[in-house]
């Protein structure tokens, strides 16, 4: 900058902001051609759909933001300009794109978990030849009771819920032995 009376009229923070803006513009000038090469239709056609949508969104946001900055530099308030609605529209699309990205990361099929209590009740009602002790043991299993024991043919004792399937196997074996 020039030395003299003009320099004293501009506050130091304004000069600092102008210098940092010029440095940012120089960085933009060097990187913009590389960035715009991604907008080539041939390059975009090779991208999978989600990355292509993300690239197009970034290009649109960059162009809209640059226009908003240009308007602001020319003394026009971007809030009163149609560019504001364009930026809002892009924000809406950005939210939609993020939801799609989240959906694409989700498993194709939700993981299945077994409700041991419901399975035990189902098996209890499907086996008609259970002894009263076996029925009681099944009810305890379906209620999620602690230590359980089955008596009768093929007696099985359990220490915790992790071995519920052993009780069920034992009941199925008992049922099939009686047939």
Protein described:
Helix content is 69%, strand content 3%. The chain has helices at 5-9, 12-37, 41-46, 49-73, 83-105, 116-126, 132-143, 164-178; strands at 148-150, 156-158. It has a two-stranded antiparallel sheet with strand order 1-2. The radius of gyration is 35 Å and the shape is elongated. The N and C termini lie far apart (102 Å).
**General shape:** elongated
Order of helical and strand elements:
HHHHHHHEEH
The assigned structural class equals mainly alpha
Largest sheet: 2 strands, antiparallel
Q: Round the mean pLDDT to the nearest integer and report it.
A: 77
Q: Give the percentage of residues in beta strands.
A: under 5%
What is the alpha-carbon Rg in Å? 35 Å
Number of strands: 2
Low-confidence stretches: 146-162
Distance between the termini: 102 Å
Strand order of the largest sheet: 1-2
How helical, in percent, are the residues?
55-70%
If helices are DSSP runs of H or I spanning 4 or more residues, what is the number of helices?
Answer: 8
Summarize the structure.
The chain is mainly alpha-helical and 179 residues long. It has helices spanning 5-9, 12-37, 41-46, 49-73, 83-105, 116-126, 132-143, 164-178; strands at residues 148-150, 156-158.
Give short descriptive properties of this protein.
179 residues, mainly alpha
Write the layout of secondary structure elements.
Blueprint: H1 5-9, H2 12-37, H3 41-46, H4 49-73, H5 83-105, H6 116-126, H7 132-143, E1 148-150, E2 156-158, H8 164-178
Helix pairs in contact: 4-5, 6-7
């Amino acid at each position: 900058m020039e030395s003299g009376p003009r320099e004293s009229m501009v506050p130091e923070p304004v000069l600092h902001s102008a210098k940092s803006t010029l440095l940012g513009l120089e960085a933009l000038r060097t990187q913009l051609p590389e960035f715009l090469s991604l907008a080539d239709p041939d390059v975009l056609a090779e991208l999978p759909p989600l990355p292509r949508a993300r690239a197009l969104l970034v290009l649109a946001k960059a162009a809209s933001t640059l226009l908003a900055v240009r308007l602001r530099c020319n003394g026009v308030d971007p809030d009163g300009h149609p560019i504001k609605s364009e930026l809002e529209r892009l924000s809406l699309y950005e939210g939609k794109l993020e939801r799609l990205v989240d959906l694409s990361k989700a498993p194709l099929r939700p993981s299945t978990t077994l409700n041991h209590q419901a399975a035990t009740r189902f098996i209890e009602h499907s086996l008609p030849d259970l002894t009263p002790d076996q029925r009681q043991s099944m009810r305890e299993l379906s209620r999620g009771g602690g230590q359980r024991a089955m008596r009768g043919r093929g007696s099985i004792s359990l220490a915790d819920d992790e071995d519920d399937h052993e009780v069920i196997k034992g009941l199925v074996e008992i049922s099939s032995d009686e047939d």
